[in-house]
Hints:
- The protein has one domain (3-75).
- The mean pLDDT is 79.
- It starts with 18 loop residues before the first strand and ends with a strand.
- The strands form two sheets. Strands 1, 4, 5 and 6 form a four-stranded antiparallel sheet that branches. It has a two-stranded antiparallel sheet with strand order 2-3.
- The protein is built from no helices and six strands.
- The protein has strands at residues 19-22, 24-27, 30-33, 35-36, 58-64, 71-75.
Amino acid sequence: xxxxxxxxxxxxxxxxxxxxxxxxxxxxxxxxxxxxxxxxxxxxxxxxxxxxxxxxxxxxxxxxxxxxxxxxxxxxxx
Length: 78
């Protein structure tokens, strides 16, 4: 379902339609979109990097209420 087709009401105040957005992560390559990955994190000690499979990555979208500021996160496959 596209963001334009979604009509999400605020779960806290029930008054406003949520605004679609995203939460950036700062990396040495610049800003990237946050993502959801299955399972627990498995940190490596070399430069604190964590292994992940590109096909398991699901971008995280954020929806914000313009009235009360409440934010909900969704991770939906493309």
